[in-house]
Amino acid sequence: MSRSALVTGGSRGIGLAIARELAASGDDVAVTYRSGEPPEGLLGVGCDITDTAQVDAAFKRVEEEQGAVDVLVANAGITKDQLLVLMNEDDFSAVLDTNLTGTFRVVKRAVRGMMRKRQGGRIILISSVVGLMGSGGQVNYAASKAGLVGFGRSLARELGSRGITVNIVAPGFIETDMTAALSEDRQAEIKKNVPLGRYGTTEEIAKTVRFLASADAAYITGAVIPVDGGLGMGH
């Protein structure tokens, strides 16, 4: 039987790759998006995860179309990079509200349906290598992504007795529109610090998520899985 899967921030980049990978494995997949057009072939649901009412409405739409969510991938996030001494409080709060509190909102809503179904469930949080090793100019982003580790591991302890697994994927530098916009010198500098000497691909993140969402990963919970070419090893 196909499962009902929801990927937040799934209209482009890593989120879209994850959504397509889950769909290819036989799941019914919905994605949330804030702007633009929904991706073709997937159920697109407009949703700003900083708004609890929009989160609830999005889940109701997904439940009506494909049933209660069995697999949740919390991927939606933003950046507002700046050195701490120049960062304003609004930019710090906005990143935390989207990346961390927004994840709280969608996970809390998903867990209700998972517990009612009593058939287990899969929750996968997309963190970042930056949350493990830090990055100058990204104190807000790093704090939000590090917070997902503590959030996910605490939730894994809460939900383990119900057969629901919670895991965290920590991507490194990945080939996306954002990294493509960096100068060649900056890209070369980044790759020099990656033991494998290259960026990762969105497909490599997606395949890791597919594994964690599968029956093969039924005994894995509370894990932080780095997909970073070795950049953050030891953290």
UniProtKB/TrEMBL annotation:
What's a Gene Ontology MF term here? Answer: 3-oxoacyl-[acyl-carrier-protein] reductase (NADPH) activity
- According to its UniProt record, which reaction does this protein catalyse? a (3R)-hydroxyacyl-[ACP] + NADP(+) = a 3-oxoacyl-[ACP] + NADPH + H(+)
Entries under CDD domains matching the protein: BKR_SDR_c
- Where does the record place a coiled coil? none
Biological pathway: Lipid metabolism; fatty acid biosynthesis
Checking Pfam families in the record gives: adh_short_C2 (PF13561)
EC number(s) on record? 1.1.1.100
Is tRNA processing one of the keywords?
no
Top EC class for this record: oxidoreductase
Keyword terms: Fatty acid biosynthesis, Fatty acid metabolism, Lipid biosynthesis, Lipid metabolism, NADP, Oxidoreductase
Describe the protein's quaternary organization and the partners it interacts with: Homotetramer.
Q: What does this protein do?
A: Catalyzes the NADPH-dependent reduction of beta-ketoacyl-ACP substrates to beta-hydroxyacyl-ACP products, the first reductive step in the elongation cycle of fatty acid biosynthesis.
The protein's name in its UniProt record? 3-oxoacyl-[acyl-carrier-protein] reductase
Question: What species does this protein belong to?
Answer: Nocardiopsis mangrovi
